[in-house]
User: What shape does this take?
Amino acid sequence: MTFRLTRRAFTGGAAALLATPAVLRAAEPIKFRVSLDTAPSHPRNVAMVDFVAKVAKESKGEIVGEVFHSGQLFADLNVSKALLQGQVEVAAPGAWTLTGLVPDADMVQLPYFYGQKTEVTYKATDGKAGQHVNKELEGKLKTVVLGPWIDLGYQNWYATKTPLESFASFKGLKIRSPGGAGISWRIKFAGGIANTTAWPNVPLALSQGTFDAFVSTDESCNSAKLWEAGVKYCYADHQFMSQYVPMMSKIFTAKLTPAQTKMMLDLWQANIADYRKGSATSQANARGILEKNGVKFHDPSAEEAAATRKAMMADMPTLIKDAKLSPEIVSLVKDAVGSAA
Assistant: This one.
């Protein structure tokens, strides 16, 4: 039997073949990338990996993400621009890296938070003050904030040669800051001399005596094994709770249905408490490791912290000016936590 290929059969078959890739494309998952500049073991990374897995499960594979660790895509200092331009879909930069774009992100530097419990920070960052900052970030970066911010941990003082037994210990010391006008103000307030050194260069700078002390967290010191660079003392005054702001690019959310976007926001809200517990556990474990490696901690009493906080409050106008904090954010923070000061 001879098979004859007619024009009609040909065009019909061709149309079906051309349609097939489109059908396959429609069935492909919506993909997103998460850019982080910390190591896989970092509590922020652990949280985001868990969140990505939960999104894939809840969406039944319709939304699939991948986490890029250790700055494989962007450093936190550069990821804001990447979000704006759609070069990455999700990121969670530290609030302190966002102050150049939105100065109000530095609100936790206000003395209200000095030496306070985490609940005091949450009253502001989870409340109207945080919502104010979120709206500013969403407007400038064309993003959607996923929800409550992820904790890194309390920022403290660390030193190599100078015992840190009181707030007066910092007078005359060269002190490295992680950045931001607020921390520089606090160093000057303590009588120190602010120094700027990139974090990767901190171990060598410490061993060479480039600076005498620095501001960081227990987990950061532990991950870098800074006792090997000479760190021997810590003044654990809990200057402020450092947090990361989780954001999605609007270029990415435009690909989602309203229900899918809501699903991601709801998942974040449902799990943020566990992510914060993970960070607290990580910091507690890190302190234990530092102590085992000879780092001596001084924990200021509640009275000592309150006295320092009161002194800082008297110089708060200087901080507000230096950090360019808006009257709105100062008022919102005061309303949220002023009674705790």
In short: Residues 22-106+115-152+242-287 form a domain with the D-Maltodextrin-Binding Protein; domain 2 fold (CATH 3.40.190.170). The radius of gyration is 24 Å.
